[in-house]
Design a protein that fits this description.
The chain is mainly α. Among the domains are: about 80 residues, Orthogonal Bundle (Rna Polymerase Sigma Factor, Chain: A), CATH 1.10.1740; about 70 residues, Serine Threonine Protein Phosphatase 5, Tetratricopeptide repeat (Alpha Horseshoe). It is built from 19 helices and no strands. Helix 11 packs parallel to helix 13 and helix 17 runs antiparallel to helix 18. The N and C termini lie far apart (about 50 Å). The relative contact order is 0.06. About 5% of the residues have low confidence. It comes from Allocatelliglobosispora scoriae. This is RNA polymerase sigma-70 factor (ECF subfamily). One of its GO terms (molecular function) is sigma factor activity. Keywords: Sigma factor, Transcription, Transcription regulation.
Length: about 400
């Protein structure tokens, strides 16, 4: 196997196995710091040994075993650790793991720990992206638009709080699930979005490992709470979005917008499942939540065989419903995009311009405004808006698309 093949295998193992390794070690040792450090050391060992020894038949098992040994070595060599604590932890290492329940999963346990309500929402997302998604601290810092040192401190404090507060590493009981679920869904949605439009430098513009993990964990949560409409709605939204993944980036690495995508390349199996879940929630005749409405909007888009067949009046009606639940500037921006198709770009532009202050640092605001200005013939202002959108964007495929659109103005 060539050096390039080995590097590719290590990269693939990191994407596919990181969460499994960290979750298994957290369950075994009850310490996120130990789990993260041992997992990182195991991957560093793989970088050293796999080029010479070859890629093992089961990379995940090799990494978990290696990380387990690294964790034990760390515990034994920390001479400052209290002897009783060290002895208890090493005894725990030798205990057989408790059996998993029918719907239990180490990674699901890990995400409920990372999403504990004792942590601030931005901390839950950052910790989940690091511990479950495997993103590096610099990648997470860019996603949050903060300094790397500040993000490192945030994650370190979060792990310390989990340890000091003795936050349990488990899936909550049935009585606690309804309270805990909304925060978990918000984190999973943000993890999915990081994969859907990746912000990390040097990463693929679409990170299937993150979108797939978010979908997998959402499926598990749905199995735990099958009657929860928002869990079903989020899963439907993810599936209908993931169905378009292969059509979203061109061969040259440029973002392909919804109206230009090859709809024949969309995944019909995922679309069918997403539509079935949306119909399931409509049949329940229960007032929908945010994720259910977003899934319904996506269902309208993916029902049209051609962009010209899109029922824009239905899309705007759904956004009107969403605005009542979530009157945020970003929802208003997305509603304006639909209004442009129904009532024209001039009407939409007026609505977008009213959102300027709260969205001044948001690249999609400037990208939307640039497109609307182009459509009404205000080329100079459109170019300026494209410049600002390109400056703020972090996704390589999106930057390529925005640059081409700007340059087409002449």
């Amino acid at each position: 196997m060539s050096a390039i093949d080995v590097r590719a295998a290590i990269t693939r193992a990191h994407q596919q196995e990181w969460a499994r390794v960290v979750a298994a070690l957290t369950r075994r040792f009850g310490d996120l710091d130990i789990a993260e450090e041992a997992a990182a050391e195991a991957y560093a060992t793989a970088v050293e040994r796999w080029p010479a020894d070859g890629v093992p038949p089961n990379p995940g098992a090799w990494l978990t075993t290696t990380a387990h040994r690294k964790a034990i070595d760390r515990i034994r060599r920390e001479s400052k650790r209290d002897d009783k604590q060290k002895e208890a932890q090493l005894m725990y290492v030798d205990e057989p793991p408790e059996p998993l329940g029918a719907i239990d999963d180490d990674r699901l346990r890990l995400i409920f720990t990372c999403c504990h309500p004792a942590l601030a929402m931005e901390t839950r997302v950052a910790l989940t992206l690091r511990m479950v998604g495997g993103l590096t601290v610099p990648e997470i810092a860019r996603a949050f638009l903060v300094q790397e040192t500040a993000m490192e401190r945030r994650i370190t404090r979060a792990k310390a709080k989990i340890k000091d507060a003795r936050i349990p590493y488990r899936v909550p009981g049935a009585e606690d699930l309804p309270v805990r679920i909304s925060g978990v869904l918000a984190v999973l949605f943000l993890v999915f979005n990081e994969g859907y439009l990746a912000t990390g430098a040097g990463t693929d513009p679409v990170r299937h490992d993150l979108t797939a993990e978010a979908i997998r964990l959402t499926r598990l949560i749905r199995a735990l709470m099958p009657a929860d409409g928002e869990v079903v709605g989020l899963l439907a939204l993810m599936l209908l979005t993931e169905a378009r993944r292969t059509a979203r980036v061109s061969a040259s690495g440029e973002l392909v917008t919804l109206d230009e995508q090859d709809r024949g390349a969309w995944d019909p199996v995922l679309i069918a499942e997403g539509h079935r879940l949306v119909r399931e929630r409509i049949a329940a005749r229960v007032a929908p939540g945010r994720y259910q409405i977003l899934a319904a909007i996506s269902a309208v888009h993916t029902s049209a065989r051609d962009v010209r067949d899109t029922d824009w009046s239905q899309v705007v009606a759904l956004y009107n419903q969403l605005v009542r639940l979530d009157p945020s500037p970003i929802v208003a921006l997305n509603r304006a995009i639909a209004v442009a198709e129904l009532d024209g770009p001039e009407v939409a532009l007026a609505a977008v311009d009213r959102l300027g202050d709260p969205l001044a640092g948001y690249h999609a605001y400037h990208a939307t405004r640039a497109d609307l200005l182009r459509r009404v013939g205000r080329s100079r202002q459109s170019r300026e808006a494209y410049d600002r959108a390109i400056e703020l964007a972090r996704n390589t495929a999106e930057i390529a698309y925005l640059t081409r659109r700007r340059d087409q103005l002449g």
